[in-house]
Amino acid sequence: MDYFSATSMLETFKALFPKDTSIAVSDDQHFIDYRPSPSIDLKIKPGDKVTENTVTYKALTIQQKTSEHINSHVFGVPYFGTSVPLFDAGSPKGCVTAILPSRQTKFLSNFLTVQMKDCWVPVPYKDIMFLEAQNRKTWIQSDRGTGSHKYSLSDLEHHLPDDSFIRCHRSYIANVNYIAEIQPDSHSTFLLIMKDQTRIPVSQTYASHFRKILMF
Which helix (H) or strand (E) holds 153? Predict the structure, then answer.
């Protein structure tokens, strides 16, 4: 991975994450670029070795997306990291890591607190069918009704359980437990028919990852 591609990648990924996210890019052994945020700085420098106790190392080792809380013994600052390996010819050649302040782990729970009309309702993850970005708001469709959330889809994506929720479109995150059917669709690659009959597109951007996760 050359410097130009890493720099271009960082500019793209910074726009996808919350403002207090630091971003690190590595090859399979060393960090090659790093952009700290005002909220957390691990003092990573290009050329630093990817050490064994980092979330980046773990993602490269198991060759899949990895999210984990890392204590202060590694960088001197505790953090919550999400790392996604980058592949070339089937082998991991690098990794992009989103680094959040440790306080962000307090957001992790088994529910979202959703605003419904004039009140807020804690909705367990298992009851959420899908999340939709529409008219600059995030809408939560659940067994308990429809409501909104103040965080964006990009914010919420990194906190929802990987074993249930999958990003399938820039405007949708779906709970796989509520998918009734997956149909081919010429305009969006796939079309999800949810158990409440809502039709959700799977865009070309997410189609390959979607198929890999659901193994079809």
Answer: helix 153-157
